[in-house]
Amino acid sequence: MNEQTSTRSNRISIVGFSLAIGLIIGVLAVLAIQRIGPQNEQSTQDVAHNKVEQTLTTSTNRISTDDRIEIGRFNEIFKNHSISEQSSALHATFSQATEQELKEWWNQSKSIERTSQREIAQEVILRSLAAINPQEAFRRIDEVSILQSNAALKIVFSEWAVLHLEDAINAAATLVSSRRIVATQAILETRDDLPENERLSIARQLESEKTFLRLLSDSKVSENIGEPERSWDLLLNDNVDDILQTETLAKVAEAWREQIGLEVLSKIYQIGVDDYRIRPPLVEAIAQEDPESALEYARNLTDEQEQSYLSEKIVRVWARTDAPAALSVVSTFEPASLVSALEENIAYTWARSNPSEMIENVESISLENRAYPLSTALSNVAREDPLGAIDMLSSVEHTVGNTSMILRSVVYQWAVQRPEAATDWVLENFESEDPQRRNLLERTLPRLAHNDPNKAFELAIEHPASGSGLGLDYHVLGEIVREGDIEIAKKLLPRVNERYKYILYGRVASEMVVEGQIEQALVLGEELEESNRRYYYLTVFSSWARTNPKNLMDSLDGLSTKTIKSIAAYELISQNRYNPVFTDDQLARVRTFLTPEDEASLKRLED
User: Does residue 563 lie in a domain region?
Assistant: First the structure.
């Protein structure tokens, strides 16, 4: 009996000792992984020690070696309310998993219903797999959400750069440009232990020298963040395109504001026209904290250009949160021309950020500035509720007078979403002799041509152009060609209006050349009147000379007539001026095909 008790005690001791060793290894693995992970991954040190220990022990006990690969086990882990606890439990679970087990866990993770939980699990699995076999982790990047692909790239290449730098570089080199930049950044940030010249060499290997320079500038800024003016000068005078450093410049500007107040707006304005792209987001970053005070600062500036520029950017920020208040303050500005410009900026921003509110309060905007913002607001509403937008337009018609332009914008937005419904509404609500009917069909039928080209064309020829303008058939067939429906377009060509038939024939033929249907394109031109064929062949050979000039030159001898050969030669020489591909001797041979008339025309062009 004593022997049995002793044996049982020994077994319990061994099990307890094994669990303790396993727990220690798990915790050490977590800490090791976190030390080489991206800087944005926080450790769990903020969680009380005993809470973490309890979570790790409980979660590890729940998931046995024999019964590890089950989706239900994820559910057990995610019963923890704290994300920190969930991450700790996941790290503990996967720290001792084999490569094959991690692959199976990865497949199971795809079935996790909640996006946030799936992303947490996949991040930990991917990091654990990358620590064992980065190539296998790399193969799984395309399996994550497109919104998470950059984060996945950073995880894999951070681990890979530590385990085997050369392999990580070679793998990054195979990526498309946008992904290669992310991978390069992960490698350079992780391997900041390397000399600066070696990191620059890596960046150049990956055609991402700008990424290295930006990281280098950011590092210098971090060292001088207590001196925002110095940091500002460093960023503006380094070798990195300022647009790539907009976010860093905004942070420096915010730090500078703490020292000099809203005068930082003038510092931003003084950046200069060469950096015009970065000024608006920087002004907005400063103005958004207190747009009213920012606008008051701009109002008191003596430089009219600076005052106007800053005021326009600031009122856009204010209009997103309180357009009526911005309008009220702006109405007291001088001169009147500035008031009008600021009001227009407010109205447009209001129309985009809160269209329904803007429509309800349209009379608070001066008459001359109402129409275009109202059109923008109603078009935004029409994307979700076209009939509602039309009803709103009817209710504010008295505030703007002629609403035909606004209605066309609303109907167009409707046609983008549901072209058949928009077209039917126009046909049902406007008589055939009403000019508005044709104007609105001009907005809907080209969109309908995407879904039902034949119906769109039939409706188009029922509404011929009045006078010398282009008919609806022109717009519809042009859209059919743009969509690449060449065969349908060829069948419809004979029925288009004679006045512009040759133009549409040329557009169809141009697409045929791109598609490689060159012989058919040349034959198609024979259907046209002799007087229109020159334009047609100019279009054909222009397309041919752009897409495959050498093939056209080789084909010159085989063209049917001297006139056609001359037109082809003319286009070859003309296109070669913009995209040189021929030697002087080759061009001299091409010139032998020119008629005297085309040679004279070309000489005038070259002179």
Answer: yes
Q: Compute the average pLDDT of residues 448-469.
A: 90
Gap between the Cα atoms of 43 and 473, Å rounded: 66
Buried b or exposed e, range 436-445, using 16+ CB within 10 angstroms: ebbbbbbbbb
SS3 label, residue 544: helix
CB 172 within 8 A of CB 183: yes
pLDDT digits (tens, 9 = 90+) for 431-454: 988 999 999 999 999 999 999 999
The DSSP annotation for 148-195 comes to: GHHHHHHHHHHHHHHH-HHHHHHHHHTS-HHHHHHHHHHHHHHTTTS-
Question: CA distances (Å), 601 to each of 572, 586, 605, in order?
Answer: 14, 20, 6
**Token pair for residue 161?**
């750069």
- Block residue for tokens 């029409």: 382
- The span from the CA of 25 to the CA of 339, in Å, is 69
Q: How many CB atoms lie within 10 A of CB 11?
A: 10
Cα separation, 102 vs 61, whole angstroms: 18
- At residue 399, what is the residue type? T
Q: How is residue 175 written in tokens?
A: 């990526």
Are the C-beta atoms of residues 141 and 149 closer than 8 Å to each other?
Answer: yes
Residue 531's domain comprises 516-607
For residue range 274-289, what is the model confidence (pLDDT) as tens digits?
667 899 999 999 999 9
- Burial status of residue 482 (CB atoms within 10 A of its CB: 0-12, 13-18, 19 or more): middle
CA pair distance 229, 93, nearest whole angstrom = 48
Q: Is residue 525 part of a domain?
A: yes
How do the residues of the chain divide into helix, strand and coil, expressed in percent and rounded to 5? 80, 0, 20
For residue 564, being part of any structural domain is answered with: yes
Domain count, the chain: 1
Please state, in angstroms and as integers, the Cα–Cα distance from residue 315 to each residue in 271, 339, 482, following that order: 20, 11, 40
Phi, psi (degrees; rounded to nearest 5) at 7? -60, -45
CB 419 within 8 A of CB 433: no
* DSSP code, position 430: S
Of 542, 491, 540, nearest to 518 by C-alpha is 540
pLDDT digits (tens, 9 = 90+) for 289-327: 999 999 999 999 999 999 999 999 999 999 999 999 999
Token readout for 284 is 């907005």
Report yes or no on 526 lying in a domain: yes
pLDDT on residue 276: 76
- Cα angle 299, 302, 308 (rounded to 5 degrees) comes to 55
Q: Has residue 3 got a pLDDT over 70?
A: no
Comparing CA positions, the residue from 69, 88, 66 lying closest to residue 77 is: 88
Record the tokens describing residue 325, joined without a space.
């208040």
Taking 70 as the threshold, does the pLDDT of residue 47 lie above it? no
Two tokens at 138?
């790399």
